[in-house]
Every structure is written in structure tokens, then in C-alpha cells.
Design brief:
The chain is α/β, with parallel strands linked by helices and 734 residues long. Helix content is 51%, strand content 14%.
């Protein structure tokens, strides 16, 4: 039985061991938690990284062949103009050194081309977001849920406890046709009916009342049970006395499919009372008579039934949850023996209506704003609840999920109506549904399936054991941390610790932030990759020498991979994120906007640096220096300008399509720190580590020119962002 979940009913359990001392505990201790599952974003990124890697390897292979051919045919020259390899004259050692140098160039091109920083950036972004989401009251159980949440197009939310406070109180009650609110009015009722109603409250419950001497009464149970028991106490119920006056013969526990629960109690002699309690319209439908204030049994005429229905509808329209109490007498002789009682189905026809109560569960503060924020972000919020359709509609209007009070089917629909349709019909109307009332857990599951088949990315919130299948089926399952059962939490990807719908919206915001940060990093890294690759390939093929050597390119790689990932992956979410529509399942990772930005910056860097590579000596007035020194100064200057271009471009990458790239930059201390460290290390490398990186010190004038070249990327980015791009992805256009 280990690991089983109790989904229905109640009982008493003896605990013999907990934690590590149980079989389950020992098993859990022996297996590690990491499943190594890849997130959808990582799968997409692997595709990008593999493609770039193949391109890099192909280019490096081609360069290697070209350089070796040039070298051995005597076309590769030293800076002073002498030929590096002459057949029959160059010794073996020099030949091997020359070939190794060429191999180094090819390997360097591979190192630059392969974006090994991508997995690091994803992991960093997800881990950072996870830590920050804890502060926003969301505990992430599955990493990939962080990013999937950013793509969510619809949220199917429970009503009770998520959109409402789950603090229930009875605010209206009709017993024997008399309104007993305030409870003092109970004196107007005959002892017969008041005894029956109190007996029904005390015996037909899974909660309990503890009455300490002199202290306040303590009520335990589910929120609805607590509300009803508290109301019973106000009516003068002595819980323990009421329970001792009769003995329970059989219990039919409340369940969410039947929407009612019953109990058979032996009152004394041969008299047995079968009490029922549940959803008002369902219990009312099973009643054939009702008790009036004098305790007299009256027939349930169609007029009287309509009157009760009207009361229920009026309460529901004021967003009250309606619960009805009914009973029927039964003969002790007809009660099965104890052995057979397990399978006894309690009689649920010919009931006598005792009372109808309206329970208020107030809307959570801040939920309305959160729902409106979702609407602006293109995320549709749907309410799926077991409550009466009128109650659900009233709360939906209060929360802003519904705007039209006269909304009809299929915008507002009952679970059974939805369930009765075919799969195709369900898929057709799923998009329009905003409120589903009187729904069973299975209806929720059917709705999730219908929405997913329409290509929606569905998030589902739930707290009960019965929500587990829907939580599991959805793209993102959100369980409630306070009211949620253990089973619901097990099935969920994210646990909302404060049970508040506003926290769900914060999760969406963080999810979008993860996606946006990774896009920023990809744009930044691909610009560097493309520029470094083209510059080195063109220079190598045309002159046999490369302006950026292995050590320099490894430093550039370090900036853009590790430090760049850290800087861009930790950008906090902005309000702008919630003004966009969600990223669809099929949308490409690299958007047209990113291609445009990347193309403009890469072309600028390639043009400037290749010009410097071929005409650098005359442009920088180095013709008077010795050829080898002039070559070193030129290459150092190219390296320095290249690195500074990346530093300036890092700011551009912060905002992919906004003109102001500096908004909020001072609040991101990590970003500022990393840019500062990068610049400081670059100065140290150029000025003090020349031997290690094959560079020479630069004059302050050349430093200023380098900074000026880097600075041009800012106005260039602004001009680039004014160029419109087509809606259709470039991949499809091609």
C-alpha cells in the first residue's frame, strides 16, 4: 500500500514510522532527484548550437586546407616580406612550427564558432529566476516550468482559495422557510426542525468542534465544513452532546462528482434518520417535501420548488455558495447487517428539505488587477469550479474574468454540458469558454486536452486531490502551497506558496523574463561569433595570417560566454514583458528583430576591422615603424577595438527592440560590475600582459580611436531599430 494516495472518504490511521525510517524514505534516499530532462528551450538551443558548431567546423576545415596549401606552395610571407617556406631550403623544425601555427589558427576558429556559453546561459538564467521566484512566493519543482510559463496562453484557475480567500462564512440561511440570519431567529422555529437541522450539521460532517472550558470554540475541517459548523454553534449546537445522542450506522463521504455527502444515524428505538448535505440545486431536486417553521411536513409543489430555486439563484447571483440540508426517516429493520453495510447505498430519494444556506467566500484583494494584467499580456484566464454556475459567474464578474453580465453559452458553461459534447465540438468551443461551473475534475481534464489540441500552452491551478490529473496533463501545473493537498503538489511543476492568483501572474512574468534574457544573450553571442569568424577567415585566406590569435580569441570567448551570460542572464523582468503577446509553441528562437540587429552590428564590425587589417598601417600612420612592430601595433589595435565593440554591444543587447538601451541599467549591479571588470581586464591585458597575448602597448590616441569605434555601435543600433522587419520569420520567407 506504500505510496498510495487516499482520494476519497475519511478514516483513522496509525503512524508507525516517518521520514527516513519508512521503506519509501529509504528508497528516496537512494535515488538522486536529477532526471536530466531537457527543457523545451534547451532543445531549441541545442539545435542552434549544433548548427553553428557544424558551420564553424566546416569553415575551420576549409581554412586549414587553404592555409596549408598556401604555406607549402610558398605563398605565405612574413611581415618583412620574406617567404616562410621554400621547398628544399626550410629545415624540418621550421616546417613543423609553421604547420603547427596554421593548425592553431584552425583550432581557434572552431573555438570561436562553437557557442559553448549557451547551455551555461540557460542554466544561469533558470537558476537565477528560480531563486528570485522564491521571493515572489513561487517554488519551482521542475526547472523547465520556468520558461514554459512564459509561453502560457491560457490559465485555467480554480475559484475557491485561488481567486477567493477560502475564508467561508454563512451569511444567509433559510430553515423551514424562515430566514435565520441573525441566528437569534432560530427561536421562531419549532424544536422539531431545530433539533433535526442541528443533528444533520453535527453528524453529517468531516469536521469537528472543540469546546474548551472558558475558552473560544475551535472548529476544524475544510473551509465549507468550518463555515457550517460555526453557524451550527451560533444556532446553539452543542457538538459533542448532539453526536452522543445518536449513533452513526453508515457514511457516504462527500465527493466532488456527486456533489453531496450523506450519513445514516440511529436516533433511538427503531428510528433511523438519513441526512444529506450538498450542492443546493442537486439536493433540492431529490426532495419531495419540506418542513415548515412549525415542523410540519409540507408537499414540494412545483410552485414551492420554483420558490426555493429562486432563493438559490438569488444567493448564487450574489456570489454565495449554496448548500442544502435534507433528511428522510428510515426503518431500522431495513438497514443491512453490519457485514453487508459496507455496500449499502443510502436512500437519496423522497427527501424532506430542512434548510438552504448561502456561504460567502470573498474575492482575494489584488486578483482583479492580476487578471487585467493577464489580459493585457495576451493570456486568457478561465475559471473552472465545482460551484453553481450563478455563483461562479458572480465571482468571475467581480474578478474581471467576465465583463458581460449577460454572457451565455459557450462563454459560461456547465460541466455536464461540456462533457456531453464530442471531442470535435469540445475543441471548437474550448477557446470561447471563460467560466465553467458545476464541473467535475474530469471536465477540467477534458478542457485542458481540448485547449492543448488547439495549440494553447495551458497552465492549470489546483489544490485538491481531484485536480491531480489536470495538473499532470497541463503544460504547467500550479499547486497551492497552503490549501493544496500532498497529491496535488506531487503532480505540479510549480507550487504557489501563498495560494494567491497574483503570484501566478508573477510566475508568468518571470517565465517571459527567462525567455527574453536568453534571446538577448543569443543575439550578443552570435554577433561576436559571426564577426570573429568572418574576420579571421577572410584574413587567413587572403594573407595567410590572422589578426586575432588563439589567446586573444579565448579572452573574447570568455567575455562573451561566461561574463556575457552572467550579465545578460540576470536582467530582472520589466513591465514591458507583460505588454507583449505570449511566445507560441512554433515561434523561432531567433526572431526577425534579432537577425536585423545581429546583421547590422556584425557587418559594421567586419567592415571596420577588415579595413584595419588590410589598410591599417597607412590609416594609423604606422608606415614609419619597422614592419614587424607596425604589424603588432595594427593587430593589437584590431583586437582592442573588437573587444570594445563587444562591450558597447552588450548594452545594445539589453533591449532588442527599444530605443532606450539604458533604462534600468543602474539597478542591475551585476551587469555594471561585469562590464567594469571586462574593461579593466582589457586594459591590463593590453598594457601589461603583452608577452602572453602577443600584443603591444597602445598610445592614448589609439585607445581613444578604439573607444570611438566601439561607441559607433550605439547610434548604429538606434538607426537599425527604426528599420521595419516582416512579420513572417526569415526561415519561412527563404
Amino acid at each position: 500500500m506504500a505510496g498510495c494516495k487516499v482520494a476519497d472518504g475519511y478514516g483513522t490511521m496509525l503512524v508507525t514510522a516517518v521520514g527516513i525510517n519508512t521503506e519509501w524514505g529509504l528508497l528516496m534516499a537512494s535515488i538522486s532527484e536529477d532526471t536530466g530532462e531537457e527543457t523545451p528551450l534547451q532543445v531549441r538551443l541545442n539545435g542552434v548550437a549544433t548548427f553553428i558548431g557544424i558551420v564553424g567546423l566546416s569553415v575551420a576545415g576549409a581554412v586549414l586546407v587553404v592555409l596549408l596549401a598556401r604555406y607549402f606552395t610558398g605563398h605565405t610571407k612574413n611581415p618583412d616580406g620574406t617567404v616562410q617556406y621554400i621547398k628544399g631550403q626550410t629545415n624540418v623544425k621550421a616546417t613543423i612550427n609553421g604547420a603547427v601555427k596554421i593548425l592553431t589558427v584552425a583550432v581557434t576558429i572552431v573555438v570561436v564558432a562553437v557557442p559553448e556559453g549557451l547551455p551555461l546561459a540557460v542554466t544561469l538564467t533558470l537558476a537565477y529566476s528560480m531563486r528570485k521566484m522564491m521571493a515572489d512566493k513561487a517554488l519551482v519543482r521542475r526547472l523547465s516550468a520556468c520558461e514554459t510559463m512564459g509561453s502560457a496562453t491560457t490559465i485555467c484557475s480554480d475559484k475557491t482559495g485561488t481567486l477567493t480567500l477560502n475564508e467561508m462564512t454563512v451569511v444567509e440561511a433559510y430553515v423551514g422557510g424562515v430566514n435565520v440570519q441573525p441566528p437569534d431567529n432560530v427561536k421562531l422555529l419549532s424544536p422539531t426542525i431545530s433539533t433535526l437541522i442541528l443533528e444533520g450539521i453535527a453528524q453529517n460532517t468531516s469536521g469537528s468542534v472543540y469546546e474548551p472550558e472558558g475558552g473560544a470554540v475551535e472548529v476544524t475541517g475544510s473551509p465549507t465544513e468550518k463555515a457550517i459548523l460555526s453557524w451550527g454553534v451560533k444556532l446553539g449546537m452543542k457538538f459533542n452532546e448532539m453526536r452522543s445522542e445518536s449513533s452513526i450506522l453508515h457514511v457516504f463521504p462527500f465527493n466532488s462528482d456527486k456533489k453531496r455527502g450523506g450519513v445514516a444515524v440511529h436516533v433511538g428505538g427503531s428510528e433511523v434518520h438519513v441526512h444529506w448535505k450538498g450542492a443546493a440545486e442537486i439536493v433540492l431536486a431529490a426532495c419531495t417535501s419540506w418542513l415548515d417553521a412549525d415542523g410540519q411536513k409540507q408537499p414540494m409543489t412545483s410552485d414551492k420548488a420554483d420558490e426555493f430555486k429562486k432563493d438559490i439563484e438569488d444567493m448564487a447571483a450574489r456570489s454565495l455558495r449554496c448548500v442544502a440540508f435534507a433528511y428522510r426517516p428510515f426503518e431500522l429493520e431495513k438497514v443491512p447487517s453490519e457485514e453487508q453495510r459496507v455496500n449499502w447505498v443510502l436512500p437519496e430519494d423522497n427527501l424532506i428539505l430542512l434548510a438552504i444556506v448561502g456561504i460567502k467566500d470573498p474575492c482575494r484583494p489584488g486578483v482583479r488587477d492580476a487578471v487585467l494584467l493577464c489580459k493585457d499580456a495576451g493570456v486568457k484566464v478561465r475559471m473552472v469550479t465545482g460551484d453553481n454556475l450563478q455563483t461562479a459567474k458572480a465571482i468571475a464578474l467581480e474578478c474581471g474574468i467576465l465583463t458581460d453580465p449577460n454572457a451565455s453559452e459557450p462563454v459560461v458553461i456547465e460541466g455536464r454540458t461540456f462533457r456531453a459534447r464530442t471531442d470535435a465540438e469540445r475543441e471548437a468551443i474550448a477557446n470561447e469558454i471563460s467560466v465553467m461551473g458545476r464541473s467535475s475534475p474530469n471536465d477540467k481534464l477534458l478542457l485542458v486536452r481540448a485547449l492543448r489540441s488547439r495549440d494553447h500552452v495551458v497552465a492549470v491551478t489546483g489544490d485538491g486531490t481531484n485536480d491531480a490529473p489536470a495538473l499532470h496533463e497541463a503544460d504547467i501545473g500550479l499547486a497551492m502551497g497552503i490549501s493544496g493537498t500532498e497529491v496535488a503538489k506531487e503532480s505540479a511543476d510549480i507550487i504557489i506558496l501563498d495560494d494567491n492568483f497574483a503570484s501566478v501572474v508573477k510566475v508568468v512574468r518571470w517565465g517571459r523574463s527567462v525567455y527574453a534574457n536568453i534571446q538577448k544573450f543569443i543575439q550578443f553571442q552570435l554577433t561576436v561569433n559571426v564577426a570573429a569568424l568572418v574576420i579571421n577567415v577572410v584574413a587567413a585566406v587572403s594573407s595567410g595570417n590572422v589578426p586575432l590569435n588563439a589567446v586573444q580569441l579565448l579572452w573574447v570567448n570568455l567575455i562573451m560566454d561566461t561574463l556575457g551570460a552572467l550579465a545578460l542572464a540576470t536582467e530582472p523582468p520589466t513591465d514591458e514583458l507583460m505588454k507583449r503577446s505570449p511566445v507560441g509553441r512554433r515561434e523561432p528562437l531567433i526572431t526577425n528583430i534579432m537577425w536585423r540587429n545581429l546583421f547590422i552590428q556584425a557587418v559594421f564590425q567586419i567592415a571596420v576591422l577588415l579595413t584595419l587589417n588590410f589598410r591599417g598601417r597607412s590609416i594609423l600612420h604606422l608606415n614609419n615603424d619597422s614592419p614587424s612592430h607596425a604589424e603588432k601595433v595594427k593587430n593589437t589595435f584590431i583586437f582592442n577595438s573588437f573587444v570594445l565593440c563587444q562591450v558597447f554591444n552588450e548594452f545594445n543587447s539589453r533591449k532588442l527592440n527599444e530605443l532606450n538601451i539604458f533604462s534600468g541599467v543602474t539597478k542591475n549591479y551585476l551587469f555594471m560590475g561585469i562590464v567594469g571588470i571586462t574593461v579593466l581586464l582589457q586594459v591590463i591585458i593590453i598594457e601589461f600582459l603583452g608577452k602572453f597575448t602577443s600584443t603591444v602597448k597602445l598610445t592614448w590616441k589609439l585607445w581613444l580611436v578604439s573607444i570611438a569605434i566601439g561607441f559607433v555601435s550605439w547610434p548604429l543600433a538606434v538607426i537599425g531599430k527604426l528599420i521595419p522587419v516582416p512579420e513572417q520569420p526569415f526561415g519561412e520567407l527563404i
